[in-house]
Design brief:
disordered C terminus, six-stranded mixed sheet, alpha/beta
């Protein structure tokens, strides 16, 4: 059996007495777009922070490409392209300078950096702003810049939180096609979003978390069988989370 690119085993995270995530188990193979969904406060952000090494789990573990993110952070993080919902950038650098800076951090050869700079800045329509300071970029431009630098080193795992915030419809369409292309090329893509239409369009499987516990894992067809309803993802999401809240 092929080793999963993302593997979460019995992961639990407490904040003092509050359990944000409880006994989470997930296995995501190469080539899959996995949508990780849930209401606000359900445990999505905590899970992402553990996956990216920003938080230590209270118990359990998370592996990226077989590397434990806590015990082997250097090896694991080199495999990750992380696109957060509120990206941090160095505002006194130009877009081009920031791209090259991140490329150097990942050890990407200079000629490869230039090739990928040309590709991504043309793809996202940033070429005319390449020499402008990032402090003058709109939120959407910053989001596209962060996507560019996050994908520059050809990560084997992409972890993305609310990718469409601030993007116009044309840019959103570019991003969706790019993510699908990455998955078709063997990348495992972990997608967290409240834009359920995007999740439904892109995802191969869906994990639904509520109150820190995974309440559904499977495909859209399996979700319809579980709910015994033939709706779209938004309708099924509300059915499952509403039922869970009502029984809590």
């Amino acid at each position: 059996m092929t080793e999963p690119m993302i593997y979460i085993e019995n992961m639990t995270k407490f904040y003092e007495q509050v359990c944000a995530v409880r006994n989470l188990n997930l296995s995501i193979p190469a080539g899959e777009v996995f949508a990780f969904l849930g209401p606000n406060g359900a445990g999505k952000t905590t899970t992402i922070k553990v996956l990216t090494g920003l938080l230590h789990p209270t118990k359990g573990r998370a592996l990226i490409g077989g590397f434990d993110i806590q015990k082997q952070p250097f090896e694991a993080k080199r495999l990750i392209g992380y696109i957060p919902d509120h990206p941090y950038v160095y505002e006194k650098l130009s877009g081009y300078e920031f791209f090259r800076f991140i490329g150097d951090l990942f050890g990407v050869p200079e000629n490869i950096q230039e090739e990928r700079f040309e590709y991504y800045f043309n793809l996202f329509g940033l070429m005319n702003a390449k020499d402008k300071l990032i402090e003058n970029y709109s939120h959407g431009m910053r989001q596209k810049l962060v996507m560019s630098v996050s994908l520059m080193h050809n990560p084997r795992v992409i972890i993305v939180d609310e990718p469409m915030v601030g993007l116009d419809p044309q840019s959103s369409n570019v991003v969706k096609k790019l993510f699908r292309q990455c998955a078709d090329n063997g990348v495992a893509l972990f997608l967290s979003t409240h834009t359920l239409s995007v999740a439904e369009e892109l995802s191969d499987r869906i994990g639904l978390i509520n109150h820190g516990e995974l309440i559904f894992l499977g495909t859209m067809d399996e979700m319809r069988r579980t709910t015994q309803k033939d709706g779209n993802l938004e309708e099924l999401f509300l059915e499952l989370t509403g039922r869970e809240i009502a029984s809590a």
